[in-house]
Amino acid sequence: MAENSILCSVSSLILSLFTLFSCLFGHGNSIEQLAGYNTFTISSFKYPETQIRPFDMRYIRVDLPPWFSSMSIALKSSVNLDIKSVENVPKSALPMICFREGSLPLPDVSNTSFGELVALSNSSFEGTQVLQNSEQCYPVPRNMTMKLTNEQISARVLYFGLFNGVGPTRTQSKMVRLLTELFYALVMAGSIIVRGPSYSFAANISVEGCITSSMQGQYCNQTVELLSCGLSRNNSGNGSASGFFNQSMLSCRNNFVTSCLGDEEMKIYTLEILRVAEFLTVSAENVRLRPVNNSGNSSGIDLMCFVRYGAMPSATLHDFSGNLNKSPLVINSPKVGQWYISILALNLSKETGGSQSNVSKVCYSLELQELECPLGKAGPNCLSERYMLQTVLRKDSTPFESYFLPYGEKVMSDAANFLLEPLLSNYSFGGLDTWTYFILDIPHGAAGGNLHIRLTSDRKLNYEIYVRNGGLPSLVNWDYYYVNKTSNSHGSMFFALYSSSEEKADFYILYVREGTWNIALRNLNSTDGTSNRQTTMSVSLERCPKRCSYHGDCKSALDASGLTSYSFCACDRTHGGFDCSIEIVSRQGKFFSGVECKNMADIPTATFHQHYCLWFQ
Question: What topology does the record note for this protein and the membrane (predicted)?
């Protein structure tokens, strides 16, 4: 009996231990999710130690899906510069790290990406507000750990590049690089650059996401309600209250119809716009207090609405805002993609006599209306022509190199350009001008290409060009524009203008962002007719702008992830710049820019003569 009792006790102990371990390990995911605020690792990459020589660069692509919550970067490098020492280092020798949303950074083009150089940190990173149309650069830190949330950056693609010196000389030939390296090794001896101009880096990058789509935010603890949309009405052929014709109106509502908020409470909604839209209207209907016998007046309550594209909005960080209890919020030409809407109730206690009771709430019904034009139409009253451009791959070319032609019967040509006049809209808005729209798609992985747009006419051009990523452009809403050779986006980042004249417009959008692009042509004074004009238009995706100005070779490479192909110019001995258009050294050997030749007397004559002569051989 004693033996049976011992066996029974041992069996009970084993069963208890088994149950305990089953609870611990069988539900390990639940414990891990609880500790990680219901997050999981979407992706994690470790980049081994890599050396970056003078004027070299490395690009890294990070994909951020709509359900991502945060991105963590841990970077270690051999750079040993503090922020005070940075001021003494020329840009051509400064290790830099640059960020850009949607495409690759290119700090050689403009100095506007630098601003006042500060140390890279969570607080100094300016996020989506800056990165949507520009880039942000910082000195490479020695050690850095940074966590960026979906409130700082939007759910798209983030690129960052590591550069060892920027400016015109970065693209010069290898011998010029060796000569420059010699200059800095000798001229700057004893200064802050004592280890030579090369540096190494290693990085770990991980992206965290939310397990449940209805829970988002940095810790996936914010409830986000998905708005459901349906076709509301079709006003084709007759007017509506808004004055629009020939339209399709989508109406979007929350599933519970009515929402209620206490004072300073916030509710978040999300909506995905799938097609190019003319406008998006956000309104609150049937605003009232609860309980109904409350003596307060709902008209004095602020029902603040904050709207943001691709990222969570807040009262301090948003794209659009308005008080829905005063008037609807109208967003013209919203971009295709995910939108987030936050509703915040304010001044509720004031209107309820100062009461802080939890039973005092403001209730409302949220409604969004999205106007979409029929296929092939766009603009005011949906009466302007809109053409989808078809991608035509070039023969025997590198990946993604292509040109674009309108898809339809109006274009019958095998050439890489097309006649513009047969495609123009014949509708004049206000009798002043007409608009014609062209839509094209830059595929995934092609962000390292350059979009080339060119118009050539047999007489003075009568068109203005407006270009925008994700949504329709207008006079007040564009990413890049061209009116004439003195009024355009020249000087803006990633815009390069070439050979502009009264009869010709020729420009590039450098390292064009992935996704949908819209080109709008504004035909001025269209009442004089266009039948006598001959204007050709060409739109193409090219590797290197202007064929490296015929002063270099166009090279192709992949970013560190292997997901994006990009091209760059390798210039000859006398030219530099991103397109090899800048003359760095004359044929007489005079340096124009890029290399500081101070303290030349300190350089050993034999050493300098050897490298100088070798360079010009």
Answer: Multi-pass membrane protein
